[in-house]
Amino acid sequence: MKIAFVVSEFPALSETFILNQIVGLRKHGYEVDIYAEKQRNDPKVHPDVEKYNLLSHTYYAEKNATKSLWAAAEKHWFNFH
C-alpha cells in the first residue's frame, strides 16, 4: 500500500509525531512518500530521518511552480499499475 504525507516543511526536528507515524508505517512494510512545500534548513535532523533514508522519499514543491503540491503528489502516486 502506498501512503503519502503532505506537510509544510520536512524534515522538522520538532515534528516527532509525524516522523513516528512515517517510521512506524515503513517498519510495517508500507511505501511512504513525503510531500513538503519547502525543505527545512536546519543543520540538526532527527536520527531516524537518516536511518530510514527518508529524504530520498521526500518531494518538494518547486519555487514559483504553477503546479500545486497535490499535483506533484498525483504525478508520483496515481500513475502506477
Share of helix among residues?
25-40%
State Rg. Answer: 13 Å
Low-confidence stretches: none
How far apart are the termini? 12 Å
Describe the structure in your own words:
This protein is an alpha/beta fold and 81 residues long. It has 3 helices and 3 strands. A 3-stranded parallel beta sheet has the order 1-2-3. Strand 2, helix 2 (47-51) and strand 3 (58-60) form a beta-alpha-beta unit.
Features:
globular; alpha/beta; 32% helix; 3 strands
Write the layout of secondary structure elements.
Layout: E1 2-10, H1 16-27, E2 31-39, H2 47-51, E3 58-60, H3 69-77
Parallel strand pairs: 1-2, 2-3
In short:
This protein is of the alpha/beta class and 81 residues long. Helix content is 32%, strand content 26%.
